[in-house]
């Protein structure tokens, strides 16, 4: 009787576990969607790097040059809201040549001020770059293109991702000789951020007389989705 009671308890405990493991058969697929579009804005990371015998002289020269660069940006019709300081550094410059008994020697100071600029008129990008360089900008960290309002493009990329997932699920079901049932879940990857913008091969040129030539190309925005389908009986 004691052994029978123990066996009954084991069955009672194991029953819910077995039931939890016998869910519906499913097919899980991941869909990808991409949308290409002509950009309507550019982001430029530029700045000024200066050197000086003292920290004060290096920073002073840098501040003067950056002020001239910002004034030129405003003269090029760049609004205040589209100009943002993105990096500011000041530090010693060392001589590691061993002329100081093997110890690094400070030979001057280096100041750097980086500014991120949004250019809403693509035809003006070349002129903006040419203008700021003439005013003292000597550092260019990057140039990228994008859409001022990319919500509709990203929504379309998501629709294409769902259609891609549905196509894959139908193909797998056909190959396996089963039928698709209802959708059990739809999810984007954790921490998902729409991909883009990425430069594409096709390019046109936004260029004025004597301006820096700039290839605007296309931007590519992408989305990803995971869908779980039930396999119909």
Write the layout of secondary structure elements.
Layout: H1 2-20, E1 26-37, E2 41-52, H2 55-75, E3 83-95, E4 105-119, H3 125-134, E5 139-146, H4 151-176, E6 179-187, E7 205-206, E8 214-215, E9 219-232
Antiparallel strand pairs: 1-9, 2-4, 2-5, 3-4, 6-9, 7-8
Helix pairs in contact: 2-3
Outline of this structure?
Pfam families: SIMPL. InterPro entries: 26kDa_periplasmic_antigen, SIMPL/DUF541. The chain is elongated, with a radius of gyration of 30 Å.
Question: How would you explain this protein's 3D organization?
Answer:
The protein has 233 residues and is of the alpha+beta class. It has helices at residues 2-20, 55-75, 125-134, 151-176; strands spanning 26-37, 41-52, 83-95, 105-119, 139-146, 179-187, 205-206, 214-215, 219-232. Helix content is 33%, strand content 37%. The protein contains 4 helices and 9 strands. Mean pLDDT is 83; it is low at 3-20 and 197-209. The longest helix has 26 residues, at 151-176. The radius of gyration is 30 Å and the shape is elongated. The strands form 3 sheets. A 4-stranded antiparallel β-sheet has the order 3-4-2-5. The protein has a 3-stranded antiparallel β-sheet with strand order 1-9-6. Strands 7-8 form a two-stranded antiparallel ribbon. β7 and β8 (214-215) form a beta hairpin. The protein folds into 2 domains: 23-38 and 150-232, Protein of unknown function (DUF541), domain 1 (Translation Initiation Factor IF3); 41-146, 2-Layer Sandwich (Alpha-Beta Plaits).
């Amino acid at each position: 009787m004691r052994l029978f009671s123990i066996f009954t308890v084991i069955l009672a405990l194991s029953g819910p576990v077995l039931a939890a493991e016998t869910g519906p058969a499913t097919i899980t697929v991941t869909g990808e969607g991409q949308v290409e579009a002509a950009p309507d804005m550019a982001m430029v990371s530029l700045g000024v790097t200066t050197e000086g015998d003292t920290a004060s002289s290096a920073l002073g020269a840098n501040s003067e040059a950056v002020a001239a660069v910002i004034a030129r940006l405003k003269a090029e019709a760049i609004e205040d809201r589209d100009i943002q300081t993105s990096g500011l550094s000041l530090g010693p410059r060392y001589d590691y040549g061993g002329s100081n008994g093997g110890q690094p020697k400070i030979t001057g100071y280096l100041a750097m001020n980086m500014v991120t600029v949004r250019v809403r008129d693509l035809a003006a990008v070349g002129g903006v770059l040419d203008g700021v360089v003439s005013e003292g900008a000597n550092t260019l960290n990057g140039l990228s293109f994008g859409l001022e309002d990319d919500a509709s493009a990203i929504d379309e990329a998501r629709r294409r991702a769902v259609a891609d997932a549905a196509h894959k699920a139908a193909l797998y079901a056909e190959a396996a000789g089963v039928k698709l049932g209802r959708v059990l879940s739809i999810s984007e990857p954790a921490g998902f951020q729409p991909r883009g913008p990425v430069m594409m091969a096709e390019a046109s040129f936004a260029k004025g007389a004597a301006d820096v030539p700039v290839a605007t190309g296309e931007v590519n925005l992408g989305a990803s989705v995971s869908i779980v389908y039930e396999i119909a009986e």
